[in-house]
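Key idea: predict the complex, not the pieces.
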Amino acid sequence: GQNIDQPTEMTATEGAIVQINCTYQTSGFNGLFWYQQHAGEAPTFLSYNVLDGLEEKGRFSSFLSRSKGYSYLLLKELQMKDSASYLCAVRDSNYQLIWGAGTKLIIKP
Amino acid sequence: SAVISQKPSRDICQRGTSLTIQCQVDSQVTMMFWYRQQPGQSLTLIATANQGSEATYESGFVIDKFPISRPNLTFSTLTVSNMSPEDSSIYLCSVPWGYNEQFFGPGTRLTVL
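Result:
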């Protein structure tokens, strides 16, 4: 079966750095996505990786290793507004998005 | 980018009734997706709605329970039929955009008593 694993919850301090990991087992691979979802709101797109390596976008970076079925989202200079759930999703061979359950990130002052 | 609106934003319904959720996109799109997200859970794809053809349902979801309409390239509806408390969830419509983005509507929060 297809499976996306990410931690259920993480806590970090304002101003610090946090890394949210995602491992996946899917039938085929056509890209990995990270989305941010604030409570009660729709998910919003953060990043897309299809090749191995690091993609940097401001305070957020996303890394992919296809051979290991592994990705992480790195958030730097954490702000209180970064408190949200972070969803990892993989697009499989049928171009369907397979979603992880999300990691709830709690930022403390 | 695409801007997506949904109606209603939330509703509380009685067991056995049906609710139709509307999704409007500000651009013409070929595919529209309907998802369900139960509290603390992942997004689960219900079906893909294509204009001019029957919706394609994922395993575990059937047309009698979740009929979908797609009358044109900017609009779709999802009906949750004969509701039970287990149908309490957030229902989201979504559209793919370009090769690597997918935009979501604000969601419809449904509570079934």
